[in-house]
Amino acid sequence: MNGNSLTKAKTKKLGLAEISKEIGVQLLFCAFAFLISRGSIFGGIMPFGAAFLSAVPGDYLAAASVGCFIGYIIPAADINSFRYLAAIFAIVAIKTILLALTKYFYKPPVISLTAGLITLGAGLVATVGDTKQTVLAVTEAVLAGLSAYFFVKTFRAYPRLLKGVKGEELACLLISANIILIGTMSLSIGEISLGKILAITFILVVSRFGGSYAGAVGGIAAAFAVALSGESTAIALTFCLAGLFGGIFAKFGRYAALSAVILSCLLCGGLEKNLVGFVELFITSLFGSALFLIIPKAACVTAGKILSPPTKTASQNGVKKAVTLRLRFASSALSDVSKTVDTVAAALSKINCPDFDTLLHG
What sections of 294-315 are H helices per DSSP? Predict the structure, then answer.
């Protein structure tokens, strides 16, 4: 095989790899959109699909639209799906037009406001004359706007994920992950919710690799997610304590983090109204812990890169200032040495004077 043929073969192989990767990412966005749009809270409202669709980058808008459409067309509760379908069609139309006209559209406040207003408009049209439903529509719009903000910040942090994120970006990432978990709360294995099992695993991962800050934020976000889904207070408190204790004890190893989750379950399980609820919570914690233990090592390494604080490196201006400051100190020291040498030289010149009177009287 000559050189040109080998080059063409490599180019073709690289092209297929890139295409396969792109297809995988598109399918991932479609799956995320499906799960997020299925998230039902307060017994019926589903604001998160429209929020995700508002925030998703333009390259993945088509795949996310398909996922949201499928998620909303299959009702997760006794709801009117048509208002959500109208909302996602409006969002797709607005994004398609505005993204082509101006680059300033993809700003967190603009995206958040767009998601909130479209969700509010669709909700008010569908709930005319019903005061309670109108209040829920306003609440839904607020949640859609806030969720869109978190999603936008997460997407903006995506190129830097493997370098580590911190502060606001890390909080937005953890909240966005828990919004996805809301869509899995309705899935169950027997009487055990798959979403709660995944939430326990999520808390253990962020606590183990992100420390106390990530554990506390992840635990609170998971607790808020299950509370919105209608779960008991005991479960929400368990998730809060599991994140806090897990982050504190994670430095002693993964089994210490597991013990923190079990301890949180035992402390908060007494709030359950019956023994069945306590047993269900305990089994959920065991399943979530077991799932954490079988996570592949490669996935753990990736999680560690994402959740670890970014490495601080000195900037070019900082190095320049530090070098300049050191040179100034060196110059000052040399100036002092020069003055001392001149003083010594003057004294020696007096000692070597041939005239004794000059030596005594200067």
Answer: 297-307
